[in-house]
Amino acid sequence: MNQKVRHILDTIASMFPDAHCELHHSNPFELTIAVLLSAQCTDETVNKVTASLFQKYKCPEDYLAVPLEELQQDIRRIGLYRNKANNIQKLCQLLLDKHGGEIPRSHEQLTELPGVGRKTANVVVSNAFGVPAIAVDTHVERVAKRLGLAGPDDSVLEVEKKLMKKVPRDEWTLTHHRLIFFGRYHCKAQNPQCEVCPLLDICREGKRRMKTGGSRKSKP
């Protein structure tokens, strides 16, 4: 691993030493539902909805015991709630049909579940089962590109592969959380804190923003 990558990882680690998954959950099943709900939605909103949702629904059978319309109403504060409610019931049915009602541990089996993509599977295997993984959400993608850990035109999969190559495997999960915190609370899409950023000297985006007086027109 080169010095630049080590410097980035150590700096972000010092800024957010306690970075963690902010989605509230008590088991792999709840985590999977929460991550599914979090697509195009803030963790804060998801946590408000799941506070009551997880009291009402404890297992796959519970989600299948109600009409789809009732589940939709229970998550209606979440974006794309109709589609997500549909996916949750399909996911629960598949869990009962193929996995004994339990969330599978393999990445391949997880991505076969309705509504579960590569990012969701990475979050579940790393947080629920302790398997090192880097899930690339909007924060991770933005930060990786701004700091030159990935190319500006890289796809989400390309960003993930480059991070996996540059970051030691035993640091993947922690790095994922820290990059999210860095992007969510410091290197924001619209108003990044460039003027007080300890990584400004290696950030192309930050230097450009500082030159233009923090213009919002520069590429996020």
Overall description:
The structure is a single chain. This protein is 57% helix and 0% strand. The protein contains 12 helices and no strands. The chain has helices at residues 3-15, 28-37, 43-56, 60-64, 68-74, 81-98, 107-110, 118-129, 138-146, 156-166, 172-185, 204-211. The longest helix is centred in the middle third of the chain and has 18 residues, at 81-98. The relative contact order is 0.13.
List keywords for this structure.
single chain; 220 residues; mainly alpha; Endonuclease Iii, domain 2; 2 domains; 57% helix
Number of helices: 12
**Distance N to C terminus:** 26 Å
**Considering the protein shown, what is the CATH homologous superfamily of the largest domain?**
Hypothetical protein, domain 2
- CATH classification class of the largest domain: Mainly Alpha
- Rg for CA atoms: 19 Å
Strand fraction equals under 5%
Shape: elongated
Quickly count the domains: 2
Main β sheet profile: none
The average pLDDT is 93
Structural class by sheet pairing and helices: mainly alpha
Q: SSE order, as H and E?
A: HHHHHHHHHHHH
Name of the CATH architecture of the largest domain = Orthogonal Bundle
Number of E-state strands: 0
Helix-residue proportion: 55-70%
Give start-end ranges of low-pLDDT stretches. 215-220
**CATH level-3 fold name of the largest domain:** Endonuclease III, domain 1
Cofactor: [4Fe-4S] cluster
InterPro entries: DNA_glycosylase, Endonuclease-III-like_CS2, Endonuclease3_FeS-loop_motif, HhH-GPD_domain, HhH_base_excis_C, HhH_motif, Nth
Keywords: 4Fe-4S, DNA damage, DNA repair, DNA-binding, Endonuclease, Glycosidase, Hydrolase, Iron, Iron-sulfur, Lyase, Metal-binding, Nuclease
GO biological process, one term: base-excision repair, AP site formation
